[in-house]
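Quick question, first post here. What does this chain look like in 3D?
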Amino acid sequence: MPYKIYQSNIIINDPLLFSQECYLAHNKFDEVFLTTDSTWTYTKYNIFTLTSTSVLFYSLFKELNFHIRSYIGDNRPLWMQSWLNFHSSDEVLKKHSHEWPFHGYISVDPKSTTTVFEKYEIENKIGQIYIGPGGKGYEHYVRVNNPYEGKRITIGFDITDIPNRGYKNLGLTPIL
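> Answer (accepted):
Ran it through. Tokens below.
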């Protein structure tokens, strides 16, 4: 199944407010986990449960559920892990893969970056939601087009349709 790009109206309507909400979420993450690495500790939490009382994240979760269902095209049981990527210009993601049936990310404040896959590139834009296949052939990395100040903020997620598998993620949530 090829990838698709959707737009998040929640983020596009007020990107600054959503970015501020991500800074609050990252601060909460730091306090709970005593580390600033919200990316590589993805198995220990889910960004949507970490922000469970945020109306903005609640609205984004509902919107994301709709887009995931649109991409998948049916109502089979699905589960998602999700985390916050919060990187300075020299910390962006190196080449990696996601060994899940589906992978995606939401660009909150992507700065001037491109996500480079083996067969295509995605120029990241505020409010953009990428959903595509995971696993072999979909390795990717982030290219910084122009150095930037502050943090590049995206929300990564993986989706599985394989039930009863012993995943090590403590924050898997169902997609309704």
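The chain has four helices and nine strands.
The mean pLDDT is 94.
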